[in-house]
Each structure stands twice: as C-alpha cells, then as structure tokens.
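Researcher: Last one for today. Full complex below.
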Amino acid sequence: MNNFQYKKEITVTTALEAVNSNENAAFIAGGTNIIDLWKYNITNPELLVDINGIDELRTIQELEDGGVRLGALVKNAATAYHPVIEKKYPLLSKAILAGASAQIRNMATDGGNLLQRTRCYYFYDPDVPCNKRVPGSGCPALNGRNRMHAILGNSEHCIAVFPSDMCVALAALEAVVNVMGPNGSRSIPFAEFHRLPGDMPHLDNTLQQDEMITSIDLPSNHLYKHYTYLKLRDRHSYAFALVSVAAAFEMDGNEIKKARIALGGVAHKPWRNTEAEEFLKGKTATADNFLIAAENVLFGAQGRGENDFKIPLARRAIVRACMMALNPETQRPGAGPSL
Amino acid sequence: MENKLLVGKPVSRLEGFEKVTGNAKYAAEYAAPDLLYGYVVNSTITKGKILSVDVSAVLELAGVVKVFTHENRPGLAWFDLQYADMDAPPGTVFKPLSDNKIRYNGQPIALIVAEDFETARYASTLLKFVFEEEPFDTLLTQNLEKARNPKKGMSTPLKPPPPKPKGDFEKAYKNAPFQASGDFLHATEHHNPMELYATTTVYEGEGKLTIYDKTQGTINNQLYVANVFGLKYKNVRVLAPYVGGAFGSGLRPQYQLFLCVLAALELKRNVRVVLERKQMFSFGHRPQVVQSLRFGANTEGKITAMNHSAVGETSKYEDYNEILVPWSHKLYPAANTLFEYKLAPLDLATPIDMRAPGGVSGMHAIECIMDELAYKLNIDPLEFRLRNYSDIDPSTQKPFTSKELRQCYEKGAEKFGWNLRNPKPASTIRGNKLVGWGMATGIWDAYQFPARAEAILTKEGKLEIHNATTDIGTGTLTVMTQIAADEMGLSLDEVSFYYGDSKKPFSMFQGGSAITASTGAAIVVAVKELKKKIIKKIKDIPDSPFKEIPEEEIVFRNGMVHQINQPNVFISFNEIIRANKNKVIKVTKLGGPDLIKIRKFSKATHSASFVELEIDKDLGTISVTRAITAVAAGKIINPKTAKSQILGSMIWGISKALHEETLLDQHLGKYMNANLGEYHIPVHADIPQMEVIFAEERDSVINELGIKGVGEIGMTAIPAAVANAIFHATGKRINDLPIHFEKLL
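Model: Here's the assembly. Have a good evening.
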C-alpha cells in the first residue's frame, strides 16, 4: 500500500474537480472493496477523494412518476430496510440482503455496489497474469481454477464474473444509473452500464474515468407481488453466488403479463435475455414454460471445465426461482431454496 | 483423590473475561521501546533460483532500516539437526534465507525491517528479484507414480508406519461374498487460526532475548532459537500467554520467528514480525491425500478382509507423514489385512499436522466404506458396526485401557432417534428437500507425554503451579487449576496456574489432545509431593498434633491440613508458612505415563456421530440440520470446556466435509484462494444446533485421573457421517472432499 494524498469533498462538483486533478485518483465511499484491492496491491491511487460528506447523495426519494431515486451514497443496508423499497421493490431488498455480511452492508454504498470488482482469484493475485488487471498479460483462469467463472458472454481474454447481488435485481428492475461528469449529467440504462469483457476486460463498465455515479433510478412497476431472489453458493452466508436468479412477474390470474429474469454469477455483468421474457408474456406460469425460458436465457452458455455445472444449475435455478416468485409469502429471509 | 469438588464440574473459563474484553494480549500486541517492524517478502515463483536481488530502491526509502535476504544473512548454525524442532519430520529442515533456491511458491525470501509496518509493507513492492524458473510438480493426482515409502527419523516413534499385513488379503477379498471399495481424494487445507502468526522479540542485550510468539510449544521454540542462533538456553525466553487458535500449525516454529529473531540480533533492536492472512498459506498445511480402500465381509456381516492404501503429499525436503491407514483395524477385527502408506514429494511447503491429522482423513474413508458394506449386506449401518465390535484392539490383540464406544453408539442413537430411520436412500422428503441420516465411528489416540510441574505453597497460603504448556484456546488454564485445586483441597481462586512460558518446567507442545493428561498428571504428582513435604514440616513443628498421626490419615481440605474424620485436629496453610519462617514451600516433579504398565494395553478415545441433513432435490444444495456426537474419552475434567472442544471439533468436521479447500493451480504451482473470503469455513448459518454426549468411561490404567484428552475426537467421525447422510438422502456416494453441491445435481 503506497502513500497517498487524502481529500474530503462535500459537493459533487468539487469532488469531480478533485478526482480529475490527478490521473491516478480514486473516490472512496464505503471502502469495502477499494481498501482490499489496495492492500493486495491491485490498485495504488495517489489521491483518495472521500465523498462520504456529500449529503445530497444520501437520500432515498420517491419520484413524481411513481419511481424511486436511490442516492449513490445510501448504504446497502439502509436501502434494503427502507419501507418504500420493501414495499415497492422487495426484490431489491431480498437481493441486497443475500449479499456480503451485515457489517459490509452497513458500510457499502449503492453507487459503490455497481463498481465492485470481480472476485476472480487471478485478478486478486498481482503475481500472476490477468488481462483485467494488466491488459495483454494473459488469463490463467481459462485453463485454471474456474469453478466460479462465467458461462455467458465470455471472451478468450477474460471469464471473470461480476459479483454483485444487488445489481442482479437492478437489472431485472430496469434501473437507470445517473452519472455526473465535467460536462454535465447523463443517464445510463442498467443493461448498458456493465459491459462484456470482449478484448478490453480491464473495463468493467461504461462509466468514464472523469464521471461519478450520483443516483440510481428505479422506474415505477408492478413487480412487487411476484418476485424472488435465489442465490446458490458454497455456504449459507458470506459467499459470492455461483448462480443467482432475480425473477419477477406481473400476473393476471395464472397468466404472465410481464416477466423479468436476471442472472448473477454467470457473466461479466448481470445477465438478462429479453427474448426469454418475451416468450413468457401471455403464457401460463408452469414449470414447463419456465424451463423453455431458462433454455432461452442460457442460449450459447459455455463452460470452461470446473464451471460446466453452472449451465444445468442455472437452468434449474431459473425454473425454481420462477416458481418461487409466484408465491413469495412462503419465503423467509435467509431461508435456503424452497417452495 | 477422595474429594473431587472441582474436577468434573462445568467451570467457566477463568480467562474468559480477559478474552471477551480484549484485555488478553497476543504475540503481536506486546509493546517494546523503539520497536521495529518486519515485513516478509515471499517467492512469486514455484521452483528455481534467485539470480539477483536489487534492494537499492528499498534502502532509499525513508524509514527502512535493513533488508535481509540470502545475500546478507549472517552465518548461522550449519547443521540441519540444529534447525530440527521437536516436531521436525525426517529430512532437511527448511532454513529461511539460507540459499538462493526456491523450493515452493510463497517461500520467504526477504525480510524488510522499517520504523513502521506501513513503510516495510510498501517497501516490499520496491524490492526486485530476478528469478530463474524451473519446471515443477504440485498436483498429487498427477504425481502418484512418484509415491514411495516415508523415510524414518526422530518422529517415527510418534508416527509409526502401518501395521504389517495379516493373512492373505487379496484372496480373502476375492472370496468375500460382500465387498465394498472406493477411492477418496482430499483437497489441501490450511489451518487458518484467527490469530495471525506473529513474533515480538525484545532484545535484552548480550545475546539475551524475550520472545512473545504465537506457538503451541514455548520450549520447542526456545530450543529452536537457541540452537539456530547459538544462544544459551537460559538467555532465550519464549512466551505465549494467549494463543488465538493454531490447529496444529504452531507445532513447529514458523518462519516469522526465525526472521524476527535474526533481525533483532543483527540490529540489536526490538523487532516485531506479523504475517498477513495471505502469508498464512505460505507454510504447512493439511496435505492432499489419495486413499483407496477395499473391505470384504462374510454372510454373517463380519469383516474378513481390509485393505487401506494411501498416498499423501510431502515436500521435496522433508517427509511429513500422518497416521492415516491403521485406524480400521484398531476398531474392527479382520483375519486378512493390508495397510500401505506412501508419500509423493512435490514442490510445495512441508505439510504439518492439522486438526486430527491422519485420523479424520482416514476415518472418513473407512467409515464411508463401512456404510457401503452395510448397505451391500442389507444391515443397518449401526448394527453392522456392533457386529464387528471389539472390546480389545484387534490390531495388537491387547486390551484397551478403557473403551466405552458401545455406550457412544447407544446414547447417540437414542438421542438421535436412529431406530426411526428408513434405510432406503431418498426415502424421506420434506417439500423440495431430500432428508438424509448418516452415522460414523470416530477414534483418536490417547496421548500422554512426560511433563514437569512446579508446585508452590505461597506465603499467603495459596497454591501456585508452573508449567511451560500453552493454552491454545482449549481451556487448559481452567482445567489445570481445577486439578490442582482439588488435589490441594483449595478453591479455584486460591490456585494460580502459570503457563505459556519456556522458563517454566517442561511441557511438550500442545497437540494431539495430549496436554490435559500430560500436564495434568505432572500437576497431580507435584502437588502430592508438595503435600508430603508439608506433612513432614508440620510433623516437625514443636507440639504438633500431627506428630503421631500416620500420613495416610492426613488430608488437605479447605485450605487446611486435617486429620481424617477429626475436624478439630487441623493446621492452616498460613500457620504452616509461619512455622516455615515465612518461606514458601515448593517442589518440582516429573510426571508421565507409566510406560511399563501402559505397554500391555492399547489406548484410544472413541466417538459416534449422527448427522441429519437436507438436500434440495433439484439444486443439490446441502444444509446440515442436526448433529450429535457421543464421546468416550475417559474422565472429563470440565464438561463445559470439553463440550466446547467437541462442538468446535464437530464444526471443523462439517467444514472438512463440505467447505474447506485450498485451491491449487497446478500450472502456476500456487494456491489461489489465500484469503478468508474465498477459503471457505462454515458461517453460523451453516451450523445447526448440535449436541454432545459424554459417555461414562472409567479408566484406571491410563493415568491416575483417568484422563484421555478431548479435542480431535469430536471431529473424526463427522466427515463420514455427513457423506453417509448424503448417500442416504440421494443414493449417491461422493467420496472426494469437500463435497460441493454440484456433485448432487
């Protein structure tokens, strides 16, 4: 860990100015990821800009169109337990609470959650090659220990997965990411925020170096009655998803009016396939239909050896999550997969 | 002892308050004036040589005091033997910074010493090594052809080779009407105690050191430091008053001790070296093991043939070995046996004992094969074990000092409700969950080492006991105080046990569940000797009422000496001290097993574990929902701390079965998940309500108190009980550990 300059800023404008004054600068909010990366010598900022004092980014606000705006600095735990979120977007609450630990959720911010780095072992070890960490150095995960790695949207340069739970729900809810840069603000649809590795795996997302996330908008919807977040992992808490599924429906009796399915733990970004969702529209909510949708979502999936199991596991997980979503009352928080 | 008021009582940990309030100080927390901080640099290649090292950028950094590498390490003890600690396996001990050879990835290759930790750590990024890499082998399964017999050495008596074959195994197995066989692969595991390895060395001048070290053996490390650095034993004091877990990793001195002492002596300064979590994966570990078993049984359900062959991983420089294969024959009779144990040397650090070393790995395979054989015979798995029950040790034909395993089976089964079990796999369903019930037997040795204790009647009329043992979190302080208090007829607060200090009388390192018996026995003989001395003194007091009373009628009770059944004939400890001209009365005495007597017996602790789990029928996810372990381990000195030992041990058993795995990348020759985020141990949500039952087991042979020790025994049955429950739930035999849920898809 190198020596560094530290600045605390209390407005978005001054924070952006500060971070753009040095090419090797970084923001710190909750710090739950950057401090680890720093100690492991994966990142070495010369200037740390502390944005925790920007109070305007710490609110959850109901919008006139019925949606909700999450300030970038709202803590994950505060979001998950917020009465408005619990009421309007229970899928988001459930996804957040499936992640990390209580202590980490109390520190981590909503904006920071979008920017967390992969947990790929090779990315975390500065003494081995990694195209994400050092472009062009190679990817030992391709033929190495890749049980946790991606099955969808891979490239020959990187098979890392994006580890967030919260973002899987945000993808299913079609959130919008509001960012501010030196030339003003812009809004990025969630599906376009994270990217696939391609030949530039060092870029996790489309946020520019000189920009900052200010808030996340949740559009108004009716996905609060039939939803679930199913997370499959090696232990019952404090482990990243091997496969996770966010599923939510608008139902008319037993007929699906609208379907949203997003996967975590399988790709470089939360994985959605709108064709599968389209297929379910107007269909009866049956395991058979969900299985067809699952096959659709997983179209083109490819394993790299140790992670081959993720393909059948994801297929089964999608079907189960969809069935569970029909009857969310049966799901206790923290309960294992069940019906 | 006719008057056991404290032994057998569930006394709470005496140091509990210090621990939960953060007042207990660990090796990295001792302050010393002008302390320097060392940061260890580890090899980033797996095998080869260091061609050159460039320290210039490091030395330019303000605050850096010195960089130690193989190029400037001072000349030290030349002979391997002087590096050999009490637990060194046969071979050539690794000597940090002794040459430019890289033997394994993560090998320590430099120590940077600076005025503060942050500077030393940052400096490590500026230190440049040029390596020449060589090809390496690290994956056991790809190097099985290299397996050979282990070399013999000083540690061989403690870890003897497997027993010789009996009868004709191949023929008997071929002819057995019922057979079960299987191959078992176990992943590498790292101990990962919560406390990081750390040493604070206080330089006292003139080659004199006080060393606060994380270790399981203060004297072991004292001897190591004195031998390696050519210091007088009396000038090296190693203290480990509190140890935040170790699980075997502290049985040998770890490299931070060597490097810290080296720096302190060279710089004549106080130095601290603390490892990082990642570096906790850069020394010993539980080895990768491949086991192959074949058991045969006759139509009566009696075992006729047993073969257990295993290959473990070791380093290229030492032959670490475990007692892995002979356990089945310590439990079950068979006329035809074949036991084999070999080692494959790989380019990795030497493994080191970890949580029931050998026993838990071997018993997992044995008890899974037993389960399978029971199914082949169509006999209940517990009934099958009872049919093959032996009151004597079948492998030696000697009686056990005590064996109440039958009681463990009965009490455990009753509590669990085993008789309600439907034997048919996948027969019990709860919603989407398949329910499985599994059981297994556990066994562990009952070790007792020689130990020496000093007992002092203080001027205040209280009792002090001194012994060098550590308390690695097991409750040693508490149980030793209970034993001493009862023997002396005092209450707990009138007895002080001083430990964790190499200056105290001898104790072996704390491992193998041996210390309660070892130090406990030494305390009993020391206090008995002290009482004799006191009786002699009170008889010498003028007009003493005890003059004519025979020694066996004199008892110690409530801080006084009485004539038995004559409460009005007494003298208080305070009066005794006054009569002794206000001087303390003390004795030091060696205690140890009665080897001549013990030789005629086999000795072991036993257990039976019963596990219930649920498996999602579509997704394979596993939840352990109930676990019960019944233990027969002689006299339980403190049922509370002993229960905690067994509960912890059961958790480690579940952990080994379902979670723990150090991921080796064979192409890079290194471990990839060297952190507690990705090296999984169970969290609370993975552990159900668990129960511990202690069988009544009187052992009048093993030692005076009948102590056999608890710790490892709670773990040895669990992995097989989990695997057998998974079979019962799903009909699938998953032999490799850990069991990942995708294997059940």
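Chain B touches chain A through 40 residues (CB under 8 Å). The CA atoms of residues 594 and 703 of chain B lie 8 Å apart.
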